[in-house]
Backbone:
């Protein structure tokens, strides 16, 4: 998915932006500070501290994410 910005020469790839499940910050999955794989899904983090919090109790963050979507 590509989106054109105000300049036709500038193309921004928005498909690589994902939400850090801990702090909810938008993170470029190609530049994420850290990642974790939980139940076959890769999660991306803005900082190692967010990854550490997630890794201690991933189910809590996965459940919160599911609740936010519904």
Residues:
């Amino acid at each position: 998915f590509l989106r054109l910005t105000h300049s036709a020469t500038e193309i921004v790839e928005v498909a690589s932006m994902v939400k850090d499940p801990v702090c909810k910050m938008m993170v470029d999955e190609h530049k994420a500070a850290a990642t974790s794989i939980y139940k076959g899904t890769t999660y991306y983090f803005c900082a190692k501290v967010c990854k550490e919090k997630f890794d201690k109790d991933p189910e809590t963050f996965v459940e919160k994410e599911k609740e936010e979507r519904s």
